[in-house]
Amino acid sequence: MLLLFNIVVPSILFALICGQAVYVALYLRQRKAVTWQSDEFFPKAAVILCLRGRDPTLSNCLDAVLALDYPCFELHTVFDSDLDPALPLVSAIKQHSKVPIHVHFIGKPSGQCGMKCEALRSAIQELDSSIEVIALVDADSIVAKNWLTEIVRPLQDNQVGVVTGDRWFEPRSNFASITRAIWSAAAIVQMNLYQIPWGGSLAIRRETIQELNLLKIWGTTFCEDTVLTEICRRNGLSIVRPRQIVVINRETIAWRDLHYWIARQLLTVRLHNPKWALVLGHGILVGLTLLSCFLLFGVNLAINQLTSALLVISATACCELLNFLLLVWVARENIEVLKNNQQLANQAAIYQHWFAWVVSTPLTQLVHFASTMRSLTLRHVIWRGIEYRVSKSGVQLLNYRPFLDRNQPDRETESVS
What local confidence, expressed as pLDDT, does residue 199 receive? Predict the structure, then answer.
């Protein structure tokens, strides 16, 4: 019986890796450049930046947004408190900015949705009637100079409901940040194939927001992006992901925050997206199979079956090496875009720290498995200091309080969680 397991379990892992190879091939096939009717499509746009806390790269984010080559846009920042640590920076930049910068305050939260949804609803309702397109960007993201031009261009097609992009974490040397970068690279593939938009790089026509009644929908959801997949499908609208829209994130993360951060990302899919069953099944199947391989290795060692133990661990190592090569395949695609946009500070980091990346590949799968299981039971979520009770039926804000300086992370480069 043990001999059978020694053969079957690594074979299942290999089959899963082959399946992932098919996914990566389909992802790369989807990412061919698409041409649109006109390159001169510049409706007046509002870039909305929702802020709660001062992200380590916020200054870089603001500089990048204000340097966009789009001819007619405004920056709208949204706060939930005038005590927010990010407000002085925004106020200082506003004084000498050539781009119009507007500052909005939410007021009293409704308590029935996530704070980002509250911020978006508040800001969009206050926009001037001349604004035709709304683009969202996150404070931990650094956009390319052509980001707004490229993300708005597909909206000239009325069948396009949402345009979105991908997030790429620049490789770092600490294992927690490397693990997050690997997890995000794998998530990019699924998000592309399952049409799951990302709210950190997203554009939508203002009239589409009105037609789909999104302000009302966002008033009852935890997040603004994963819910759009089903809404667009029901209304016959497509979600477009132009190849050239990759947004870089240069922040780090600590181990104490990583597991919860991934679980929270998965929770947004569980709550609002019809593809959750596929995401869940993949996470559980890969995690259990990998754990079974390590368990078989230990059992064979314990009963002194050294040859079998060597074969099991060798087969597992080969599968994980193939997994790493798939990661490199995805990385090359995204690095090429970032290189063309002159955004990547260290193009060779994944190769310089190749051993750390190889070791972190199975580690990431195990962390993903643990985070997937945790996301199944998450009912109370803490996001930037605010606790929510979440379920399929709705969201309840439990303990709103302003974000203060003492809530900032200890390390300057560490993500605000």
Answer: 95
